[in-house]
Amino acid sequence: MKQTGQPGPPTDPIIGIDLGTTNSLVAYCDERGPRILEGPDGQRLLPSVVRYNEAIASVEAVGQEASTHAVEHPQNTVSSSKRLMGRSIGDLKDDLDYLPFAVVEGDHNTARIKIGKHLLSPQEVAAVILSELRGWAEATLGTKVRKAVVTVPAYFDDAQRQATRDAGRIAGLQVVRIVNEPTAAALAYGLDSGTANRVSGVGKKEDGSLSLSTKLNPQACASESQSQATNHQPPSQTLAVFDLGGGTFDVSVLRMMQTEQGRIDQVLSTAGDTHLGGDDADRMIVELIQKEVRAQFGEQIEFPASTRQAFRNLAEATKIRLSNETSAQIEVDLGTDGDGNARVYQRTLTRDEFEEMIGLLVDKTIRCCEDALRNAKCKTEDIGRVVMVGGSTRIPLVCRRVGELFYTEPYTALNPDEVVALGAAVQGSILAGINRDMLLLDVTPLSLGIETMGGAVSKLIMANSTIPAQATEMFSTYVDGQTNIKVHVLQGERELVGDCRSLGEFELKGIPPMPAGLPKVEVTFLVDANGVLSVQAVEKRSEKRASIQIVPNHGLTREEVDRMEAESYEHAAQDMTAHRLIDLRNQARLDIRAIEKQLAKVGDEMDADYRAQVENNVAQVKIMADDPGADPDRFHEALDKMDQSTVRLAELAITITLREEQGA
Ligand code: AMP
Question: Which residues are catalytic?
């Protein structure tokens, strides 16, 4: 029965979707606030599982039905497809043994799921889930849904984000914005902190105050609160969002500010691992069971795909039980052996044993928290609140360790399964213009720059810059008459091209021939709100321009990001020296060229001693420039000495030029 006084169906609504590794959800936010949209049976979570018909690879079941019967159809039931999206087969080596369905190599090294004789892309599987959720939304809202905000882990690279967008397109949804999951959680949290807003309309702050600032730890960000007290700055709070789901882990440090224009959430840093989550804990229990079963019933015992799937279900159920109880009973009936003897495996797993098993896994999450704090230039005591997101944050050890790190009890008031979808819906409402007083600022995970002379990287946008971000820098040519310039775009934290990842390159052609250093090439980097990078180069005198949009085939894996970050710390000093030497060599080359031109022109009018002195200084600099192991400080000194000694030469050159002009 329809309630009277209810508003009609929204026009062209933007829904929010949390496309999870294990479960997915859909939510919608209007003036009344965000809410989860339920499925036909009142279910709020859709297991991210699809079963296909083996013969024709058509969809047979989606969600709970597919998940419940996965044991019977292990080879044609696809779960965890999010782990495969936008990744090459090489990236997935570690997962393949664990997945009950077959994954093979497709075009361009991509991973393809093999169902019978058919190959499916992970995006197609994700599209089935998105389509199902779209159906739930259309049935609940009573209108056609064409647009969605979809969340991804903060460390998803370009390829994975692009794959998510493609999955949306296959499902007939325009993905109007990709939002990082922790950012979405912060958005949902912001709403939850102001209960009054829900009643009076989302985000309408009646008294202009942010309830967060009064609710949160008063010691948080001492320096900030001091500056607020003296400068009457708007209240701001720093919080961490700790998101441990089934397959991925993210932690982000965010600043929430209440300004006169509304609330601003700014992501200061993110860290994480696209390969860490509750599935790993399940896998550890499965390995324990398999090891003990073999020890009890013989090493030769086989575990067909259906048994492995049953072990997974059992492991997950055991893990979940241990979140509430201190021990759990495991029992596996393996049927009879060749002699007709029953084979039943039984054991009790205590919470202590489980905690010891997953200790290293939890350690990893804590190390990521420390990285995120360091990148955000925050101390643990600056964090006013730690918001827990994702099903695996229900594991007591996880909560305890996070609490110990941040000296504060983690905030678990929001349902950790629903937070992200609610936040995505809020973002949707902002984009739809329903919720106007919020602004979301996200960050770039890695620095972006271009190659300059000698193999150095000049960074235009630094890691953890707020997006959308734009940066412009002027460059010039090194060779007289150069008419083409190659712009090589790179991503990474290191100083040299060889140590960064190449994202693409393009050529700016048709520059009129000019002496080296004269063309003014303005290079502009723009990272849009979805994290997509466009680079434009314009030669200002001729207005010649060229541009590129970077959508790499395979972006960075999380491991690559980790490695690149670690290497940048490790090699920072050595890299800086190498970069400085490249800069000095480039400078020396330009200066020597100018000096030699002047010497050729006015050398005959110089006194011999002075000329010898200049030539000697130039020779010294050339020796330094040719020495790969030169000491940068001594090189710098030699360059300064040379430049200073040529002041008189430059004056002489000007005088002679003037004389010539007057004589002419
Ligand atoms: P998510 O990716 O956020 O949907 O989280 C799913 C993960 O949370 C799966 O690995 C679940 O097994 C795990 N999970 C859900 N509930 C619990 C619980 N009560 N205790 C431990 N893990 C849980």
Answer: 18, 82, 181, 243
